[in-house]
Amino acid sequence: MQVIKATLPDIYIIEPVVFGDHRGWFMESWSSSKMHSAGFSFNFVQDNHSYSAQKGVLRGIHFQNSEAAQAKLVRCIRGAVLDVVVDLRKSSISYKKWIAVELSADNRRQLLIPKGFGHGFLTLTDDVEFLYKTDNFYDAAADRCIFWNDPELGIEWGIPDPIISDKDANAPMLKDSDCNFI
Predict the structure, then answer these.
(1) Which of 12, 96, 150, 176 has the fewest CB atoms within 10 Å distance of its CB?
(2) CA distances from 9 to 5, 28, 46, 73, 95 (A)
(3) How far, CA to CA in Å, does 55 sit from each of 51, 113, 160?
(4) 95 burial via Cβ count (<10 Å: 0-12, 13-18, 19+)
(5) Which residues are identified as catalytic?
(6) Whether the predicted model's global pTM rises above the 0.85 cut
(7) What would the mean pLDDT of 99-127 be, rounded to a whole number?
């Protein structure tokens, strides 16, 4: 496994070692011992799996507040996404900064996102399956989102009119949210 430090502090791109031959390929998508050796200690407790039928589906920017905050290890196992992470930690030198990384079934990259960050993705192809591990269980009372096109964040999604849920369409701007990450 190769660990690549992203340009946003505390965010890492994980590139697994892939073994392939005429039959196909094999890779370890998660190894707590290898992650621990790389300096990471997460106790992932929940796996989530989403499917998006069309290119142009945007999900995010999502996070869970307070004690329900979640670290995530995300990957795309079918199709491709533009994965976006935003630093929502008010005391961070990179507060309100974001990065975008293409994750796809072809590149097999994963993104390691600690607590204190918002997360979203835009499907770049039809028929996208997206998996992520979390280190905290889903808590509906702590579930939050920020408007995907908040001008204060200036995220460059590369699409003017994505397909979004009612929840995401009605999300507050960051300045109006109750995001409480320090």
Answers:
(1) 176
(2) 8, 25, 25, 16, 10
(3) 11, 24, 13
(4) middle
(5) 62, 132
(6) yes
(7) 97
Tokens describing residue 18: 């892939």
In a domain, 59, yes or no: yes
Q: Is the pLDDT of residue 108 over 90?
A: yes
Nearest to 181, CA basis, from 122, 118, 100, 98: 118
106 lies in which domain range? 2-17+48-176
Average pLDDT over residues 98-115: 97
* 110 contacts 75 by C-beta, under 8 angstroms: yes
pLDDT exceeds cutoff 90 at 33: no
At 58, list the tokens: 């945007």
**Residue-level pLDDT at 38:** 87
Domains contained in the chain, number: 1
Residue 60 near residue 168, CB atoms below 8 Å: yes
Query: 112 is written with which tokens?
Result: 């390691």
In a domain, 7, yes or no: yes
